């Protein structure tokens, strides 16, 4: 009896991997490409930095890159994917100015808030932490991709598994 159950379980798993998963990826890709065509702005750059209000060395690199990009290409719209949902855009920019003495133009920077940042926190995974954070970064990346789809995507936190997500599924330059 249990052999029959095991056989059908394996068969269902194989069918899921062969049929359902590719179809869902194709439908998701179709949805994203259709959503992409509805954007009027053709020059958008998005930085993936879920902890942009933390105030460490990585944040200094982020704000320096944002400032350099804005100075070189002032007509580009800059978006930052952040998980700091408790801070307003003006508070984040003010903190960057106080902490790093970097004056950012508030009108040129837009924030896309991510509500699933907890999936990349190390405390959620007591074992296999890097694997859990990598899978969590893909979950966070899907939320980011569904929230806003830029022309150019830059990851400033080191979540490498978001690159294939944005590149292959989202069709975005990296």
Structural write-up:
There is one protein chain. By secondary structure, the chain is of the alpha/beta class. It has one domain (47-169). Helix content is 52%, strand content 11%. It has 5 helices and 4 strands. The chain has helices at 2-37, 57-72, 89-100, 129-147, 162-169; strands at residues 44-48, 77-82, 109-113, 152-155. It has a 4-stranded parallel sheet, with helices on both faces. Strand 1 (44-48), helix 2 (57-72) and strand 2 form a beta-alpha-beta unit. The longest helix has 36 residues, at 2-37. The chain is elongated. The protein starts with a helix and ends in a 5-residue tail after the last helix. The model has no long low-confidence stretch (mean pLDDT 85). Belongs to the glycosyltransferase group 1 family. Glycosyltransferase 4 subfamily. The chain crosses the membrane at residues 6-28, 124-146, 152-173. Keywords: Endoplasmic reticulum, Membrane, Transferase, Transmembrane, Transmembrane helix. This is GDP-Man:Man(3)GlcNAc(2)-PP-Dol alpha-1,2-mannosyltransferase-like. Residues 43-171 form the ALG11 mannosyltransferase N-terminal domain.
């Amino acid at each position: 009896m249990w052999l029959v159950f095991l056989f059908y379980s394996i068969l269902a798993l194989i069918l899921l991997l062969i049929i359902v998963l590719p179809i869902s990826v194709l439908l998701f890709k179709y949805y994203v490409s259709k959503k992409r065509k509805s954007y009027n702005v053709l020059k958008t750059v998005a930085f993936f930095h879920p902890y942009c209000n933390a105030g460490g060395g990585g944040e200094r690199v982020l704000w320096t890159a944002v400032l350099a990009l804005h100075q070189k290409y002032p007509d580009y719209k800059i978006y930052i994917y952040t998980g700091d949902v408790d801070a307003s855009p003006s508070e984040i920019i003010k903190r960057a100015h106080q902490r790093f003495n970097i004056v950012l133009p508030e009108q040129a920077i837009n924030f896309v808030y991510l509500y699933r940042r907890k999936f990349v926190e190390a405390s959620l995974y007591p074992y296999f932490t890097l694997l859990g954070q990598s899978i969590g970064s893909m979950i966070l990346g899907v939320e980011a991709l569904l929230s806003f789809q830029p022309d150019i995507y830059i990851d400033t936190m080191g979540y490498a598994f978001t690159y294939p997500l944005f590149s292959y599924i989202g069709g975005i330059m990296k």
